């Protein structure tokens, strides 16, 4: 054989030994959360990781439907046909089920599951995100459910039980948690152990409020799971709600498998060399050919080995860098998320909601200037009226605006639902609203030059483009006030403005006020026009007549509700966003140039 081909064959053969498929994943495994990198988990639906805790469903004070799963990314080997062995396992985790709104109903629960696939998110509600409501028999899984709602469809015994589910949500066996003095819905932390012994064909579930394992299981069953195990399966948690504010948290988790026998390829694999095979020594040539082959092999394999080492360490470094960047992004996101304030803290910050600190009034409440002693910052506190409409507005504002992130939007810092009060905490705008800067005494507030005004228009367009087309839950701003409408050119500028920009701004305003919705530009197009990155819309010389589609009948009740619309309206997906319910007025200064 040619020496080069000989060395190449050795390299390929040795690499096949190191990367045999049977060695892709460990046989018996052990891991512990939260001491694992974030990339070790797959998140589906509404699940999230934050501060070392995994959440499975949405955090919302407003009743909603939610479903989410947390899956350990690496598949676990549970059976091996070559050694005819099946794994035993034990897992321990702590969890809590919390209702964020005491006035809301509870449900539906969470589960620990083992499944052959890791990409399907089930339906919310009683389906526990394990199965799809339209394909009940297709999902395969072994699960321990912690159910907080009585669902007769799945033959639930009560609204506070655990159960063993196999390929169906009709539990094989259930146990009332109150038999152990446990109410899953109290919001406190519980610890669970799930042990399966394959030799004894026995499954046990332990549940307690403490960190010590109880002497007796809350659920025990003689069952052989080997027929349900595939060679590789995934582990994880699922949780769901339907019209509730229940949230499901996994605080820690450890897993360990055992019992899989070691596979010896020299004995079991007929394609491998056996112990009885006679290996002949290579002939030694008097001319030193063999020594030359060895020397050539070292010369080739040395650089290859060094390159492999460099690639390996480079891969590890990049992976670690990505992990650090992900964690930094998550920490930054956590610091920006709204938090819950105590009523006492906000009462002190507003001097008992003193009238001297009122900086604004709206249709649903009063806004106070407040100083937070804990952080030393000045904020704005919106105190909602005690009415049904105000309560609806409060929860809508909290659930929608809390997710918005834009440099030109006032940031929601937190909330308080206590003592019958509904309070929202915002960043404070130290210079007040734009109408005060535009219309009050210039000596008191300062006078805005044309460049500042044009930049304000660009910033407004950028924020509206984000709300209308870029954020996850689209928002329509419909509360346009007369004080928020700018003159085309303020006569107090005395002609000191850019005529091209003035014309562009005027044409954009007229285009947006076109009664024909098909002729209005999107806010992204508006932003591009103002930044001179797109051509202006064609404005007709005569104002078009408004056209209303007969396919969309509008009742008197619709008109009344439209005229008294809220500040924001959330729109799912790509819903219609073209109708403005408020009067849009463009004022043209006759003396402007």
From TrEMBL:
Q: Where in the cell is it found?
A: Membrane
According to the UniProt record, where is the region Disordered?
557-593
Provide one Gene Ontology cellular component.
membrane
Q: Which UniProt keywords apply?
A: ATP-binding, Lectin, Membrane, Nucleotide-binding, Receptor, Signal, Transmembrane, Transmembrane helix
Q: Which Gene Ontology molecular-function terms are recorded?
A: ATP binding; carbohydrate binding; protein kinase activity
> Which Pfam families does the annotation name?
Lectin_legB (PF00139), PK_Tyr_Ser-Thr (PF07714)
* Gene Ontology BP annotations: defense response; response to other organism
> From what superkingdom does this record's organism come?
Eukaryota
* Protein kinase domain ranges (all copies): 353-593
Record field: transmembrane? 300-318
Give the signal peptide as a residue range, or say none if absent. 1-24
Q: Does the keyword ATP-binding apply?
A: yes
Question: What is the membrane topology here?
Answer: Single-pass type I membrane protein
The answer to whether the entry has keyword Transmembrane is yes
Binding residue positions for ATP: 382
The UniProt similarity line reads: In the C-terminal section; belongs to the protein kinase superfamily. Ser/Thr protein kinase family. In the N-terminal section; belongs to the leguminous lectin family.
Q: What is this protein called?
A: Concanavalin A-like lectin/glucanase superfamily
């Amino acid at each position: 054989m040619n020496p080069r081909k000989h060395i190449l064959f050795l390299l390929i053969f040795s690499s096949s030994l190191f990367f045999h498929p049977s060695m892709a994943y460990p046989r018996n495994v052990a891991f512990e959360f939260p001491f694992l990198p974030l990339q070790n988990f797959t998140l589906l639906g509404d699940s999230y990781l934050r501060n070392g805790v995994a959440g499975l469903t949405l955090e919302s004070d407003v009743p909603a439907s939610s479903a989410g799963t947390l899956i350990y990314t690496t598949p676990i080997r549970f059976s091996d046909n070559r050694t005819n062995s099946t794994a035993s396992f034990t897992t321990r985790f702590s969890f809590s089920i919390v209702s964020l709104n005491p006035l809301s109903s509870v449900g539906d629960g969470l589960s620990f599951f083992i499944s052959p696939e890791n990409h399907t998110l089930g339906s919310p509600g009683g389906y526990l995100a394990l199965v799809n409501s339209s394909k009940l028999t297709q999902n395969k899984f072994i699960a321990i459910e912690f159910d907080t709602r009585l669902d007769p469809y799945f033959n639930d015994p009560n609204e506070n039980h655990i159960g063993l589910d196999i390929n169906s949500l009709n539990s094989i066996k259930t146990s009332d948690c109150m038999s152990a003095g446990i109410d899953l819905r109290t919001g406190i932390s519980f610890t669970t152990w799930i042990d399966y012994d394959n030799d004894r064909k026995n499954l046990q579930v332990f549940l307690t409020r403490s960190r010590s394992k109880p002497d007796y299981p809350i659920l025990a069953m003689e069952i052989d799971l080997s027929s349900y195990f595939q060679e590789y399966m995934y582990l994880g948690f699922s949780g769901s709600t339907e019209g509730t504010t229940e949230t499901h948290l996994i605080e820690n988790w450890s897993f360990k498998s055992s019992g899989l026998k070691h596979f010896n390829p020299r004995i079991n694999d007929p394609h491998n060399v056996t112990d009885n095979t006679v290996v002949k020594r290579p002939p030694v040539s008097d001319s030193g050919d063999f020594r030359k082959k060895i020397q050539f092999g070292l010369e080739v394999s040395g650089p290859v080995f060094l390159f492999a080492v460099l690639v390996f360490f480079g891969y590890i470094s990049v992976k670690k860098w990505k992990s650090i960047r992900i964690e930094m992004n998550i920490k930054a996101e956590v610091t920006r998320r709204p938090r819950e304030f105590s009523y006492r803290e906000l009462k002190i910050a507003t001097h008992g909601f003193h009238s001297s600190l009122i900086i604004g009034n709206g249709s649903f409440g009063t806004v106070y200037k407040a100083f937070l002693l804990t952080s030393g910052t000045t904020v704005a506190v919106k105190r909602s009226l005690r009415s049904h409409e105000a309560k609806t507005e409060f929860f809508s504002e909290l659930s929608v605006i809390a997710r918005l992130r834009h440099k030109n939007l006032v940031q929601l810092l937190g909330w308080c639902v206590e003592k019958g009060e509904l309070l929202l905490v915002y960043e404070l705008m130290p210079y007040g609203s734009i109408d005060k800067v535009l219309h009050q005494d210039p000596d008191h507030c300062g006078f805005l030059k044309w460049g500042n005004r044009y930049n304000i228009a660009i910033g407004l367009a950028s924020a509206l483009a984000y709300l209308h087309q870029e954020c996850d839950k689209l928002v329509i701003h419909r509360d346009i006030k007369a004080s928020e409408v700018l003159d085309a050119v303020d006569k107090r500028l005395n002609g000191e403005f850019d005529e091209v920009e003035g014309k562009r701004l005027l044409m954009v305003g007229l285009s947006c006020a076109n009664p024909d919705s098909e002729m209005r530009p999107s806010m992204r197009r508006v932003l591009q026009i103002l930044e001179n990155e797109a051509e202006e819309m064609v404005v007709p010389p005569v104002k078009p007549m408004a056209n209303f589609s007969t396919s969309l009948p509008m009742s008197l009740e619709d008109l009344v509700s439209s005229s008294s619309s809220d500040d924001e309206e959330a729109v799912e997906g790509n819903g219609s966003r073209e109708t403005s319910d408020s009067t849009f007025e463009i004022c043209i200064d006759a003396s402007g140039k």
